[in-house]
Amino acid sequence: MDIPLHPLMEAGMGAASAPRTNESRLVAAAVAGQVSHPVVRVSPYRIGRDGVLRLLPGSGGIVLNRRVGDRAVGLAADHMEAGVSLHNPGRDDIGARGGSNRALMFQACVGNRARVTSGPVTGAEGTVVGKHGGINHVIVDFAPAVKRRLRIGDRVQLDAYGQGLELPDFPQVRALNLSPRLLRRWGVRTEAGRLIIPVTHTVPAELMGSGFGRSEGVLGDLDIQLSDARLVRRHRLNALRLGDLVAVCPLDYRFGPSRRPGVITVGVVVHSDSKVAGHGPGMTPLLICPGECVRLVCRPQANVALVLGLRQSVAPPAHGGSRSRW
Known about the structure:
This protein has helices spanning 7-10, 99-107, 144-149, 180-186, 229-234, 304-307, and strands spanning 29-35, 46-47, 53-54, 84-87, 113-116, 125-132, 137-141, 155-160, 174-175, 189-191, 194-199, 201-204, 210-213, 222-223, 245-249, 263-271, 282-290, 294-298. By secondary structure, the protein is an alpha+beta fold. A hairpin with a 2-residue loop joins strand 10 and strand 11 (194-199).
């Protein structure tokens, strides 16, 4: 059935209240990376699930003409990160190689503030809007005027804050990659012992692809496959936008993604579509919840670009209702 629009949402949430958190116990830390250069692997060709060879720009660098809030589907691109892509290539004195970048990936949370610390736009501020596993980038949104002056290799420092976030009244709910800033502004509320969570779409778990098999759920994303045209139409997935807050049902992302009845994972769309088999728009997880303690509400405005005030307007939502038994 269609996701019902909860009456409290139309009336300014009525008696519903914001969920309590352990924010006072969280630790904020500075982590840093540099603006990455795009990478092309051995061959620039990408073999599509339809057997077609394509030459398309991919992940990394500074995307100048796309931004969070724009369409994630239908672009002449593959796994595009519509913002500024960061990684930390620093040599590590201790631990396994790449530990500095894994720390950047782990500690960064969606909604964290970022600040440029080198180059011509030193001092400019942006916002973390996603994390992309595999290539291992943190994606930061900056105003277009800032992006035009940023340079590959410029340093960016984040106020990393949010890992370890808990909701004491919902101990069975796991938060990942979620900053308190985003949670406060998202519109998540409690009412009658349930979490009311605004989303733009629900996605059936059988559509999830690349990212399954990972042993953890905090260092990246999981792709939404768009190869089933019937399900794409039914759930309006051709209208997915970068920054949309979406629910995957049923999906348990606590210890790495797995299909588990009765569990819902809500996350944010972080990169564009792909025609490669098993791939599609990526979703970074934010909240993992037992179905009985959640009520999803359909809100076209549930996009981080609007929720965090990064843009005044975004691509229009799709028409029609998303279908889900949740």
